[in-house]
User: Fold this.
Amino acid sequence: MNVEAAHKLIEQPEDPPSREKRGWAEVAEILEVILLAAVAIATAWSGYQAARWDGRQTFLYGTASRLRIEADQTMTLGGQQKLLDVSTFNTWIQAKQAGNEQLAALYVRRFSPEYEVAFDAWLKTDPFHDPNAPAGPAFMPEYVNSRNVEGQRLNDEASATFDEGTESRETADRYVRQTVLLATVLFLVAIAQRFKFRAVRTTAGVIASVLLIYAVSGIVTLPRI
Assistant:
């Protein structure tokens, strides 16, 4: 009992924190709460934008695939139309050489409108007497296959849409990178709260603040949808 009493007398109660320390701790906690609130809002916004851009990428890739299929179908029809016109033209030559003008006129009426324009221009070159005349209406500059033109336009649109989808994916990746930076800020703030040393806590808070400003400025400069 005497030993125990002696220990009680020797033990000194811990000094309560001074008003200055309490004031600094309260300020630090307020700043940390502000940092955490900013991180939460920025993280939610960055994640939302990343998800939106991912969805846009998927939509654009799907649109590009659809346009590519339509382009292939249109160009296939254009090739079939050209083949039919050339075949009809060859039959017209046979009828023309045989002197069957009625049959030859029937074949001319079977030309597609685009081929008929080129056919009329081809006849003006005097192809039966001029050896330098084009081999047929298909080689005339007046011949324009509308389906092939439309197919090429669809192909170009598909390529542009695919490129836009790739840009959307890259934008989503940039938002994800900013989210990683925000997660680092959150980690630093959480670690800082475990320390009671003012220098350590202040340093962690300053680093977290700088990273937060850098991440938020990056988010602000990124495109939004």
Observations:
- The radius of gyration is 39 Å.
